[in-house]
Amino acid sequence: MIRADIFLNPFMKWLQLLVLFYFVTPLIANDCNNFLNLNLEKIVVTEATLIKDDGDLPSFCKVRGVINPDIGFEARLPDKNWNGKFFQAGCGGFCGLIEPDRSSHSNAINHALRKGYAAITTNGGHQGKHLGDAAWAKNNPAARKVYAFTVIKFTYDAGHQLIKRFYNQKPNYSYFSGCSNGGRLAAKAAQIYPNLFDGIISGCPILNLTENAGIFGPWLLQSNLNDKKNEILTFKFNAKLVWLERYVLNKCDGFDGSYDGVIQNVNECNLTFDDIKICDQSTKIECLSLEERNTLLKLYAGPSNAAGEKLFYGINPGSERYLGYWYFGSKERPRPGTLLADGFLPNFGFNFEKNFKAVDFNFDSHLEKLKLQSDLLNATNPDLKKFFESNGKLLMWAGLADPLVLPQQTVDYYKNVRNLFGDNTDKFFKLFLVPGMGHCWEMESRIPDQMSMLTVIENWVEKNISPDFIPIKSLNMKSEVKDGFLRPFPLMAEY
Length: 495
Fold this sequence. Notes:
Shape: globular
CATH architecture of the largest domain: 3-Layer(aba) Sandwich
Helix content: 25-40%
Strand content: 5-15%
Distance between the termini: 73 Å
CATH superfamily of the largest domain: Alpha/Beta hydrolase fold, catalytic domain
Number of helices: 13
Number of domains: 2
Radius of gyration: 25 Å
């Protein structure tokens, strides 16, 4: 009788060696220059260069080109120690630029590259002069559709194709991360393409684009004009912002149950400025002119129609330090938020007359026009059933002091999802609000605002570690509060 183990033992040893080789042997990538000679589907490569010395980045293959229909991209593929994962970034504002070297985690890829990811970023399907340039969208419905959501799938397919050609295998995990418009794209990915990404990070998402940009934007512009159509709050008002921030903090800090230098219960903070001295000269610091006071109160209150019915949210108390960065400039040098507010309605297919400007928007008669593009542009659909069934994870966060993309829309969206899924929501979707934080790290906060959302989503997807708290720290040397942790909504952060 022949013993079976005589044959099985050599086979098992061979199998063990094969498994050991597969999981331990470093992956050797193909030659980066080969991308210039490959026949790729729907991708034209214009540059393929091995970058060996770029600061603290690992060596990587830089691939630039165009994805059909007209999406400019840059991919960065580690030539050694690839972690087997794919990372796709969104783009902010009206996009139009390829920005692989953004310094923060906002619509950036280098923080993922440092962790070993093969990463890709795009211009959103068009070229622009800056992120506030919307001229490309005028009379261009095809480009608007790419910007709205199809850029997600086009870029995903291209990224996976590049990975397959470079490493001869597919990624084990795929992640999407974006902030602002990139956060909107992240939410769209969960809603429209539920099977693409294992984990999605949606930061400061402009979920209701048509109303945030189409109602609040004109409201801000119109509220800041006097009877002579001159701007009231300009760069000159920025000298008052430190005082104004301190005033609001003193009024509203305690409403969250703790005097800790942080405003979290913004809904209880009703500002009137009744106790602030009225001054005629706007150059004085600790006072407001009547025009300045009235404009600020309109911004906090938010837009309304002629009957006084509230149409959208206003800015949150605590966002004062960011107002100058986003809005208070001059006609010659408008700030980014002003450019975004000016550019949206005239260019995004709302059928306004030829010379229409955002300051011409009527909060009664023009509202119906916004519905023309709401399905295309907005990411407010709470039905995430297919994303839930695909075992995807959605991590959404917003700066509670964001004056550009108003964070109340993320809260309302989360509540709408929870109304559909109940406690099951916690299995796949969590929202974190960051007190004192503005918009997408574009300006430093007074309190902790630094967190590694990519690490959090990795642990949730790959290790099933639910994000019940997120450590947060401050890089601001002047900050009195150095660290703390975020808790999932509706819980408050702790410092």
